[in-house]
Amino acid sequence: MEDNLIPTYTGVYLNNKALFTEDVPQLLEPIRQQALEDFSTLGIPTNKLERYRYIDLLPSFNKKYDFYLKPNLLNLKIEDIFQCDVPQLDMKEVLTINGFYYQNNIFKGWQPDGTYVGSLRQAMHEAPEIVAKYLNKTYTANDGLLSLNSLLFLDGLFIYVPKNKSLAFPLQLINLLIANNDLFATQRNLIVLEENAAATLVVCDHALSSVQFLSNTSTEIFAEQNASLKLTMLQNVNNKATAITTTNIHQASNSQVHSVVLTLHGGMVRNNFNIKLTGEGADNQTHGLYLPDASQHIDNSVFIEHIAPHCTSNQLFKGILDDTSYAAFTGRIYVDREAQKTSAYQKCSNLLLSPQAKVNARPQLEIYADDVKCTHGATAGQVNDEAMFYLRSRGISAQEAQFLLTFAFAYEVTQNIPLGDLRFRMEELINKRLRKELGRCHNCMITLG
Question: Quick one: pLDDT at residue 434?
């Protein structure tokens, strides 16, 4: 079946080539051609592949979708469709709609301080040398999903922070999916932090219609020497949606990238993290929390390559599973023979609230250096009986005792959210999610009529 899908998706490009070449710089042409060649060979990943062993994406791809290849000129204001009730948090918001940077965003390119926040498509014209230097440079021809993204993307977010500068505000990227019919959306984001640069980014994914969505989003992040990025990702889409994200991170010496991904809701979610520590002293912290229930399927894959010495990485992923939900975690740490003095930690813990819930966790180490400190582990189990007894003996109901223990279990991840007010808000959403009071973020005020 996967072979039959290849012409379906390559045909989107070949049959609409005018849209993919219209007003697009020449730098995209070799990217498209390489992606077309690679996807024609790789196709959609199947669970016969080791890295995709625990997820079957073919049913999601083997459906008829509309393809969003040109943005509708939606005359909406951010305040009309999104409201954040964290008034203490001074974040600036930008939207993408079905993979395209929204034309009425407050940021439209170069800022007075030399930073750039805007459309990736527009940046190809306004900052062509910078985009050409970084765009698709993390690409490897080993994943059909990434090849498909490189073939079909038309827009996304571009952030550029020059040397010795900091983004003056936390930026919130709100990725919205809106459609009347089942929709396939592709988005590419590019984030570049030059030497000594810093930024804080919050990414929120929302599906605002009840149709079936299939989104394939790729984000490339470059942190040059001494750069610092704090990234929080919130995934909250409907049960009909399949959301695929690939985050490729390249870090130079003494850079820091700290990421937290919270998956509150989604029919099928696949998160790929590919992280390469190429400079001495680089530090990467990648944390995840997923809360599936019903028949939701959440799959996280993290691959960290330690190429240079004296680098640090820390992976902590936790899951709280209910009903007939399913989750998987595949983590791999690779330590090159030149990467002496590496410190790498990897752990995946899962709490099963239902006997029908299932999880697979597969932490892996591949070490070629001889002076390293690397640990990994995985656990899965039910709520601790002794802790439950302790709380029940103090007059707390069984339901409330289970909630308190599961919320405490999640706290080890949420405490890593960098902004205090944002952390408080996320914990409030997790509270509602665990109490089954949250279908989607109720603070996204949708007024599309």
Answer: 79
